[in-house]
Amino acid sequence: MKTALITGITGQDGAYLAEFLLNKGYFVHGIKRRSSLFNTDRIDHLYQDPHDRNLHFKLHYGDLTDSTNLIRIIQETKPDEIYNLAAQSHVKVSFDTPEYTANADGLGMLRILEAVRLLGLSETCRIYQASTSELYGLVQETPQTEKTPFYPRSPYGVAKLYAYWITVNYREAYNMYACNGILFNHESPIRGETFVTRKITRAAARIALGLQQDLYLGNLDASRDWGHAKDYVKAMWLMLQQDKPEDYVIATGISTTVRELARMAFAEAGVEVEFSGKGTQEKGVVIDADPEKWREMGLEESPLRPGQTIIRIDDRYYRPTEVDLLIGDASKAREQLGWTPEFTLQDMVAEMVRSDTRLMLKDRYLREGGFKILNYFE
Ligand code: NDP
Ligand code: GDR
Asked: Residue ranges of the NAD(P)-binding domain (predicted)?
């Protein structure tokens, strides 16, 4: 049985990858951070009692900023494969916490590589680094490939640039099997709520149900190559199953603006939106609401009226330096790994809106049934 160690197992990709590897018969170890509230929602369905004789899944407390703890976990678990997914992964937040982001996202990978090397596991342990299309930053060429020059535009991107190069350096210096997956944006119903896709699908569900009045966004002109996390974790695994370690771009090859994504998500929730105005004055206004959709949601009539403004701009969501356009060319992954995405953006947005609508309906039923959200101080 192969053994994998996943850092960042409580995150979106960690959860999908853990499930994927368990289905392939791996023993999966994961590193989770200690927090004052439970942070394992995304992997609770995979949890196994440590006393289970057929144990395949085990969590360890740890942090990428703590090398002694990483050394201990790697020594104890002796993994065949390490997937380094842990990171302070929010680009905007990295401008507020640049030093921490550099420590976790940049030096974190160095700590893992050094631990593997010092423990004498270089020949048996294969390592994946979660690199990112944010490395490209300021547009140099499109579509972006493994050969496109990097020009990161945020503390997050710069930290990930260090992790990218230290992975390449350890591969060349010590002959380690270490790969960078340069993954473009990928999303899912379990995406963090402050990333723009999930922020929009969640708001579309809430606004269509009358639980929220409006949605504030930042730069609607930014364009991203959005795929589905389920497709992308498969590519991570494929990269570690090759004869030679290499770096690969993983992307769909289609780029869509935030504005268009918002239009798609609201349409999935049965609300037709039209945008007008420029810059921070731009607005998304309701044109129509689909009666079939609002009846499906158990509403007698839509809470929305044509002409109502439901999307507004708040410049607090703008970044000091923006990445305007990402569009990836995954030809190398297609040819060498045999990887192609199965989900379209439309499929994914529909899945996310459906999932958020179910979550919001639950919320509404609880309120209507007189059950309040638990308030510790009441
Ligand atoms: P998430 O933000 O959903 O998950 C990040 C994970 O890292 C969480 O488990 C988080 O723990 C953990 N983590 C954060 N800081 C530390 C730390 N100091 N020590 C240990 N664990 C830590 O990210 P995704 O799943 O979306 O992304 C996975 C990786 O892929 C990240 O490295 C990200 O930068 C990278 N990436 C993501 C892309 C995307 O579009 N999703 C695209 C390209 C790269 P907790 O749950 O406690 O917060
Ligand atoms: P990104 O994802 O920065 O590409 O990083 P995010 O969803 O945060 O932003 C995408 C684009 O949308 C614009 N935007 C907004 N973004 C957020 N979060 N909130 C808003 O209200 C908003 N309005 C407009 C942003 O300016 C940006 O242009 C993600 C992360 O998962 C990284 O970890 C990963 O490396 C990259 O994708 C690839």
From this structure: 5-352
